[in-house]
Design goal:
462 residues, CBS-domain, Ribosomal Protein S5, domain 2, four-stranded antiparallel beta sheet, alpha+beta
Length: 462
């Protein structure tokens, strides 16, 4: 489209205007002043009518131009342009701030919306586990098969990612209270410090572009809620959003496992990665040929009642899950410990059935059996302080409970019947323990894209 065919100096004769209208094939012409600014618009119909009224082809086109015409600029919403074209407007001139013509919009020429830069956000939930812990590690289920039951809750890790035009890598973590700056991915991977998990994820997927990554979580580190897998899933979800061939949920869980267990070398099982990616209340079975996630179809009112009967309590102590899992692995060589793990798996099937039938008190008592078995896996799982907290909870209304994660600290989960919950909470608070509110989260990893605003500044320095 040649824009010179759409404008003409306002003092030019009508004959020249008609020639340009014939060339532009849009049935209109715009008049310009001595500065090149568009000051009027005339259609071929306007000119025809004025010629009938007595004007000649030598008269100036300004005699036919209308100074009040519809025009747009680059900020005009596409929706408005569509509505104007649908309202019998033949063409709409696009003018810049100096009112100079920079484009024409018509029914046959409505430019496609340009693709803007985007940033990606992700959030992934933590899980609370009810039973089967210890059976989701490969060295156990490779011989005996494993099963766990868990549910994701409304505590999340959050990630925000945007591409850069260069190869620089910038990572900010509120959890670590640290930032990492590197000229490229290689420089980011070779840095020492506290970014080991993040670097392991980046090593796993090896992005070929520079980026800025921002991370934070709603929960403390080393809490027993599967937080490392949650952070890894968030990062993977963000990078996956930029892929044409996107990983499915099983692949995302496997990549998170690869980063944490193989590259970072943290011992542990598989349930954390699957729980945060898939989400919801799930019964999971582990075999060497495949891991299967069974979403449990529990009545919504059953879930609400269970949610109200559970108490999540932060012990205020952190734990080293990798160290505990390593000790468990050594212990697993003993026949009696393997038998205890199998007993835990058997109870997991009982817990599944209790939940499906809404047998709440039986569920609570099953948690007590799970905890008493789990404590025997390793001497590192509990200690005198944790035992004291648990026994105190039972004395003040809890039917059962368990320490979440590998053990050694983090969060206790207790079950209390409806009319005993307040007594339990008052006791736990009197012991200086923090109660964490939560809701069940049906969704797992969630990822979405947002158009980047031009006024957002990229971070290039501390």
């Amino acid at each position: 489209m040649r824009l010179e065919n759409f404008t003409i100096p306002e003092n030019s004769p009508l004959k020249e205007a008609l020639l340009r209208i014939n060339n532009n094939q849009h049935g209109l012409i715009m008049t310009t002043n001595s500065y090149g600014a568009v000051v009027g618009l005339a259609t071929d119909g306007d000119i025809r009518n004025r010629l009938i009224e007595g004007l000649t082809l030598d008269d100036p086109v300004s005699a036919c131009a209308n100074g009040e015409f519809v025009w747009a600029d680059q900020a005009t919403p596409r929706e408005m342009l569509l509505k104007q074209l649908d309202n019998n407007i033949r063409a709409i001139p696009l003018l810049n701030s100096s009112r100079q013509l920079i484009g024409i919009v018509s029914r046959d020429h409505l430019p496609a919306q340009t693709e803007e830069d985007v940033y990606v956000r992700a959030r992934a939930p933590v899980r609370i586990s009810f039973g089967g812990g210890g059976s989701d590690v490969t060295h156990y289920f490779s011989d005996f098969g494993g099963a766990v039951i868990n549910a994701t809750i409304s505590l999340y890790s959050h990630a925000t990612l945007r591409m850069r035009k260069d190869k620089k890598v910038i990572i900010h973590s509120l959890d670590l209270k640290r930032a990492l700056y590197a000229d490229d991915l290689y420089g980011a991977l070779k840095q020492s410090g506290e970014f080991g998990l993040i670097q392991s994820v980046l090593k796993t997927i090896h992005p070929d572009f520079g980026f800025e990554l921002f991370l934070h979580s709603d929960f403390p580190m080393s809490s027993g809620l599967g937080g490392s897998a949650v952070v890894a899933a968030c990062i993977l979800g963000c990078f996956n959003q930029f892929r044409r061939d996107q990983w499915d949920r099983h692949e995302l869980a496997e990549l998170a496992f690869q980063a944490e267990r193989l590259y970072m070398g943290i011992a542990g099982g598989w349930q954390d990665q699957y729980a945060t990616v898939f989400g919801g209340l799930s019964f999971m079975e582990f075999r060497m040929d495949q891991n299967i996630v069974h979403p449990l179809r529990v009545h919504p009112e059953t879930l609400l009642e269970l949610e109200e009967c559970l108490v999540l309590c932060n012990t205020g102590t952190i734990h080293d899950s990798g160290d505990i899992h390593q000790h468990q692995r050594q212990q697993m060589k003993q026949k009696n410990i393997r038998e205890q793990v199998q007993a835990n798996v058997d109870i997991t099937y009982e817990i599944r059935n209790h939940l499906l039938r809404g047998r709440f008190n039986e569920f609570g008592r099953a948690l007590d059996k799970v905890w008493k078995i789990k404590r025997q896996f390793s001497s590192k799982i509990s200690n005198s302080r944790l035992d004291e907290i648990y026994e105190g909870a039972l004395e003040h209304g809890a039917l059962g409970g368990k320490l979440l994660g590998a053990g050694g600290g983090g969060f206790f989960l207790f079950y209390a019947p409806p009319f005993d919950k307040h007594r339990l909470i008052k006791h736990l608070k009197s012991e200086g323990l923090q109660i964490q509110s939560f809701r069940f989260e049906e969704s797992g990893l969630q990822v979405w894209s947002v158009r980047d605003h031009k006024n957002l500044q990229r971070v290039d320095h501390i």
